[in-house]
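For the sake of clarity, the format in which proteins appear in this thesis is described at this point. The record quoted next illustrates the convention:

___
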Amino acid sequence: MDLSAFTSLLDVSEIVPERYAGFRPAVHDAAFYFLEHLSAPRQNEILVAQAALPADAPTAQRVVALMHACPTLHKLGQVIARHEAMDPAFRLRLQQLEMFDTTLDPAVLREITLRELGDAVEKYDIELEIAGTLE
């Protein structure tokens, strides 16, 4: 799957309400522009994830998967999920962006956090809980 094949799958009429129909071409073009300006490895990662979805996956599912892979779009999706004019089914899909499993390694997270806290860990007797265990 290449970038234009992916964006051709995005039928924005499924996710942009009728009252905003005039903005559909801009939404489609903005998605293409955003993706086009990502690095090649990043584009490839996204396209591989999209290719793994069922061929008949609805646009809402594809958009949420895309948003999940891009922090900027992820945050945008969280904001849009609160817009009551959006299609309720799409809003429900977007709300999935609020809850997702992290891919952060708890050991790395702990190391970074402790380094950032520095001397405050001992000074304030800070206990760090990561992945349900007290460390």
